[in-house]
Amino acid sequence: MDPSAAPISKSQFSPAASALYPPSATHNTSVIGSVATLTACFSGAIAGILGLTNLTGFALYLATAVATGVTVAAVKCNFDVGKYSPQAHSDAGPQGAVVVASWKGWVELMGLGQENLLGFLLFWIGGYALIHVYD
């Protein structure tokens, strides 16, 4: 920050607080959450239709989550996930600098949260029950 610059008013967003613009970060989080949820549901349906059981089904979930995260990171983030992910920006560190932990951004991109896992399980069990009832 330039010490000779005019002080920041209360209505302005301080870049020292975070490098992310809050409305954009909210929109990005919403879109990433939707993509992760849809990926989990579709991979659950595929696991059920294919008749995967036990760890092979969870391996499919993990593989699709990683593939989705890498695809979004490549197409939209140019592999600089920490720059665009609000979860990668933690509280201010020493001297007020924002500390960026990019691995948290990767976890957010992959959508490995509880709600996505439960959606995967719902579609996996439903797809398996509908297709393989009489096996």
Automatic annotation (TrEMBL):
Upper classification of the organism: Eukaryota, Fungi, Dikarya, Basidiomycota, Agaricomycotina
PANTHER family reported for this sequence: ER MEMBRANE PROTEIN COMPLEX SUBUNIT 6
Family of the protein in this entry: Belongs to the EMC6 family.
Gene Ontology CC, one term: EMC complex
Membrane topology: Multi-pass membrane protein
Keyword tags: Endoplasmic reticulum, Membrane, Transmembrane, Transmembrane helix
Location relative to the cell: Endoplasmic reticulum membrane
One of the GO BP terms on file: protein folding in endoplasmic reticulum
Protein name: ER membrane protein complex subunit 6
Species assigned in the record: Vanrija pseudolonga
TM stretches of this protein: 31-51, 58-75, 117-134
InterPro entries reported for this sequence: Emc6, EMC6-like
